[in-house]
Design a protein that fits this description.
alpha+beta; 6-stranded mixed sheet
Length: about 140
């Protein structure tokens, strides 16, 4: 049985190997993972905007997590992820992806931004458990 992709503002539940549950609020083009976890299923922090990280997630990964709640937006701005960085692997040139558009950028402007990527479920679980091996955050501005 295939599940449909969750809608914007749906909250998905991710069962973690340590027995806890993490939650992600579906945005346009990304999922915002709440910092707060629970020991029991179905207890997302509705209304919180304290997100640990926000990343794009493959549709097949996103569709495998159950929707356990809705966390409606206060305004349309909350439906979009923050600006993200794109780095051309050949030219090393950087751009910014923001609200469905790509624009030129500088190294200083992209410093600290999450790289644009579509994460698989095991990458998300690793990151929720504290691993940084999949994160490509820059360590300093050039």
């Amino acid at each position: 049985m295939t599940r449909r992709r969750p809608n914007i503002s749906d909250v998905v539940q991710v069962a973690l190997p340590d027995g806890s549950y993490a939650y992600g609020r579906v945005l346009r083009d990304a999922v915002a993972f709440y910092r707060q976890r629970s020991k029991e299923p179905g207890q997302p922090p509705i209304g919180s905007r304290d997100f640990e990280f926000i990343v794009g997630v493959h549709n097949d990964a996103l569709s495998q997590w159950p929707v356990v709640a809705r966390d409606p937006s206060a305004d349309a701005q909350e439906d979009w992820p923050p600006a993200m960085m794109i780095r051309d692997p050949i030219t090393n040139r950087v751009e910014i992806y923001e609200r469905g558009h790509i624009r030129p950028s500088t190294e200083q402007e992209v410093f600290g931004l999450e790289p644009v990527a579509a994460w698989d479920s095991h990458h998300v679980v690793d990151r929720l458990l504290g691993s940084t091996k999949w994160s490509q955050q820059p360590t300093k501005a050039n």
